[in-house]
Amino acid sequence: MAEAESAQAKGGLLYLNDLEIGRRFVSGPVTLDADAIKAFAGAYDPQPFHMDEEAAKDSLFGGLAASGWHTMALTMRMIVESVPIAGGVIGGGGDIAWPRPTRPGDTLHAESEVVSVTPSRSRPDRGMVLLKTQTLNQKGEVVQVLQAKLVVPRRG
Predict the structure, then answer these.
(1) pLDDT tens digits for 85-107?
(2) Domains and their CATH numbers in the chain
């Protein structure tokens, strides 16, 4: 299996031709606080367990928890910053799971791995890459698993 790398360490943009199964990428950290959790929830997912510590105590989460979509948005940024795909990170579908909540004070990072690389038969200028990304907190606990199909251009 390929060793993990950061985009900054490798340098340059990656094309379909550059990606092989097992190639890994690791993002930098992002720390989340209660105010950010509440602000995101107020704008996009206004549920009591994302916005009110007292209400959250009696919820399934047992305390304030970030919206899964907040965790996803942070993960997207971490992917963009750590996986330098030529033409950008363009999604073509995927699956997402949140095995545990993201909490105030959590410091997250994303670890991504290329699972498959499939050149397009009908479009010779591109292909699809299946990228599995696990978002982990400071304890190494997985808070999100994303398997995303990415449209990636071929070099020349």
Answers:
(1) 999 999 999 999 999 999 999 99
(2) 4-32+74-153 (3.10.129.10)
